[in-house]
């Protein structure tokens, strides 16, 4: 399991007909244990992670949260994924130059409906689901093992992928509502930790993007969505910066040839273990969270990713 810390700050530019001064986006790769530094902010030795299809499905765990109901979660999640899909790509996303009018990224994430399983898992021989789950009680693994940094982690995304090709097989998001007052309230003055900002950032990890290493702009509203730090009471990370747009367009060019199939690998599983209601009863995975509430002005998002011969990677967001 590889883990890296994110600090989430919002960004705002989407589909503008401009060139940009600098870029710092990075993609998650198959390299195990890579730690970004100022000298080497992005890994250039591993294979970048990616979804091989143009369409991917996601599901929200049906119990949702006592703070955010199922319908609201599904709506906010779709908006968060759509922010990436609706980006207008530049002529050259790698250098992030040229007019931003070259079509949209060749990736779309669609809601497949709720599932019952509340565990993060990947099943190698049976069905799966790319889930969004809340941890209302405590920040732990499904077996009760406490996760680290409960007091600073807002969310965690775990991605399972092929270590030889970088193809993503599965992605699951966990939201730490046990330790954080995450809400969907507007205006910003009523928000402490904005749910849509958090999910838009995690959606970037879901799609194979790593944290951006661009220094925080003086104008905070221009901070990339994939920046690791989130600033309390702000909602500007709901929108993408040019840096984010270039990242998603480089990963999924508009002209990419790929099939559209939202079905998770080996079929959609509604229950844990790859089962469905007709053949399997829900196993009792009560994922919980431990830790004290954050006290700073910022929070960091952490995301995770899984590697298989297969691989796994984890990324989390902090305050």
Name a few traits of the molecule.
319 residues; alpha/beta; 9-stranded mixed β-sheet; two-stranded parallel sheet; globular
Could you characterize the architecture of this molecule?
The protein is an alpha/beta fold and 319 residues long. The chain has one domain (2-28, 46-318). Helices cover 12% and strands 20% of the residues. The strands form two sheets. Strands 1, 2, 3, 4, 5, 6, 9, 10 and 11 form a nine-stranded mixed sheet that branches. Helix 1 (70-85) packs across helix 2. It starts with a strand and ends with a strand.
Strands, helices and their partners?
Elements: E1 2-6, E2 55-60, H1 70-85, E3 108-111, E4 131-134, E5 153-162, E6 168-175, E7 182-183, E8 193-194, H2 195-206, E9 229-231, H3 242-251, E10 298-308, E11 311-318
Parallel strand pairs: 1-11, 2-3, 2-4, 4-6, 5-10, 7-8
Antiparallel strand pairs: 1-10, 5-6, 5-11, 9-10, 10-11
Helix pairs in contact: 1-2
